[in-house]
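A.,

Following up on our hallway conversation. Structure tokens first:
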């Protein structure tokens, strides 16, 4: 993209005014090549948070049932976390979406190779980083969490 011609009347050029890689795009996901809305557009932070809540609630209900029969893995909160991590890794790896993603019409996609599955290592790293909460809560200018940036993925609609 050519830089527009400037004259001395325009004043000094502000650093990063043109072609700044850290500047936000016109819409979330534009710099990733994703559409502004509809299928394959970037899912909002609120929608992703609700998806995590659905998954957590599902695992919590399973943990309550599991703990009634045995306490070999610990109490309900510990078992809930263990089930949530297993759910995130297995579903992310095999289906590129968790039950919460599926109910809200989302999925995890690789941004480096369109249409490719997430893969085991990406599913493991994404889930473990999300379990620490901070990487998922810290988002870039596109609204992607740091766990998605670290694994080269994005949560998209559709």
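Then the amino acids I'd put at each of the 158 positions:
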């Amino acid at each position: 993209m050519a830089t527009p011609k400037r004259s001395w009347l325009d004043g000094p050029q502000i650093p990063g005014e043109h072609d700044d890689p850290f500047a936000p795009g016109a819409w979330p996901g534009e710099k990733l090549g994703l559409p502004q809305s509809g299928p394959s557009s970037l899912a909002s932070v609120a929608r992703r948070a609700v998806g995590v809540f659905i998954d957590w609630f599902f695992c919590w209900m399973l943990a309550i049932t599991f703990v009634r029969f045995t306490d070999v893995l610990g109490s309900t909160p510990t078992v809930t976390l263990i089930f949530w991590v297993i759910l995130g890794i297995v579903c992310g790896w095999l289906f590129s979406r968790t039950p919460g993603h599926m109910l809200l019409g989302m999925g995890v996609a690789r941004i480096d190779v369109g249409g490719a599955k997430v893969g085991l290592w990406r599913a493991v790293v994404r889930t473990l980083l999300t379990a620490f909460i901070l990487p998922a809560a810290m988002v870039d200018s596109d609204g992607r969490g740091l766990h998605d940036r670290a694994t080269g993925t994005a949560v998209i609609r559709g």
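The chain has one domain: 41-157. Curious whether your intuition agrees with the design.

B.
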